Amino acid sequence: MTTTPSQSIELPATRQLIDGEWSDAPVDLPTELENPNTGEVVARMKATADADVERVAAAAARVHETGEWLNVPAEERAAILESVADALDAAAPRIAALESFGSAAVIGTTAMLATVINGGSFRLAAGLLRQGRLMHKVDVELSQSDPKAQAEVHRLPWGPSLSLVPWNAPAPQGCHKIANSLAVGAPTILKPSEWAPYGTTVMAEVVSAALDAAGAPKGTFQVVQGNSHVGGMLVKDARIRAISLTGGLAAGRAIAAVAAEDFKATQLELGGNNPVVVLDDADLDFAANGIVELMTQLNGQWCRALGRLIVQGSIYDDLMAKVMDRLAQVRLGDSLSPDSDMGPMVHSGHLAMLRGRIEEYVSQGGVAHSSTPLPDLAGNFLAPTLITGVTSEAAQEEMFGPVATVHQVSDDAEAVRVANGTPFGLEGYVFAGNEERGLAVARQVRAGGVKVNGSTMLSLNLMAPRPAWGLSGLGVEGTTETFDFFTNSRVVGVENFSAAGLKAVFG
């Protein structure tokens, strides 16, 4: 029997980092982890013990209270972060391979993310430190007779932070969170997804080694493993003051409810049911390519993937034919094979959920369309599927896979109405021949970001925010936004107001 590339990879142990010491996570959970490409069981899900979770919180609180990491000068912290970035660059091939195995995304995608995002996140955070983002001065000229009233605005960490990352692209998302938390001086705790711990754990080992080499205090960065029980312990812990989650709606709601009890800062990115609107003047070949890209990137298992395809009626048949033709050319295969365009679903339970959703739509009168050949592998493979014949009112929930519903509309106004017809609002896409027309539609789509004639997973602009509307989350991610999220402001100055000055300001 031929060995597939994913069967040749050496998997690391699921390890934890507690107050400067690495060890294997000791608790066996009931769930077995499988090779998503073959269905073979490769490991048992592991977790950090409750007593060790308590040690993690205590160490993080100690580092915060003593100021050991916060008091490292910003320029020095920036240099340390840049050394972490260099180490991550060197480890990118290993991390990318493990990410491809764990998340089932194809190696071409995970290699790009490991090369661009992992080290890049630390360099961007270091750059913000060097720009002085943690402190600025505010000057107000009160009157000709009064001097300026000057105040310093300092950005300081809320306290120890917890970063919870999902199983799709976990290492890049983890790097974005922990780089900014470390940059602002916060003791930082990372919990990888229990479904895909491999690449994130190795990434964390690289980060830890670079921090140690630079002399960072013990407990500055820690790693716990396990399921929602472990994460929940830290979410409830009063010593944890900021929580950044990329995950599902149920997890986000649970965290928000607990965090509200002691007003922890929360940043919650919870996914979406993203609309793709194709207007009747669009280049249909270009649009079809974009639709396929949005269905197959990260195997459709990403928060900004296509959820609902909204097409003006006059181009419906032609566009569907072009999309199905392109889907027939998609190469489903082992995620670590460079010849694969798309890999399997992350685990058998997720595959079963998606199949169940397709069957549910079909039972409601929908028709499932797929043309991608399945590989001769026993993994969790699902051909990208478009479902026609269901109402937009029925297509309310996120699929989180290569499955989307299709809806015909008559004009731009109806397209906007259908696009805005769910409680989610993460991302939207508009394909149009006339860019001004496309922008006019895009400005009406209720989402944090809307791309016109674009379908890549990268942001429109490196410095642009990534907001979430409705059930897609709470708070804003982004290069500067995540940096700021881990902090609160403290305003310091000598009062210098007088009656004359106040009169000059307020009249």
UniProtKB/TrEMBL annotation:
Residues 31-492 form the Aldehyde dehydrogenase domain. InterPro entries: Ald_DH/histidinol_DH, Ald_DH_C, Ald_DH_CS_GLU, Ald_DH_N, Aldehyde_DH_dom. It holds the Pfam family Aldedh. GO terms for molecular function: oxidoreductase activity, acting on the aldehyde or oxo group of donors, NAD or NADP as acceptor. Signal peptide: none annotated. Keywords: Oxidoreductase. PROSITE patterns: ALDEHYDE_DEHYDR_GLU. Gene3D superfamilies: Aldehyde Dehydrogenase, Chain A, domain 1, Aldehyde Dehydrogenase, Chain A, domain 2. The keyword Oxidoreductase applies. This is Unannotated protein.
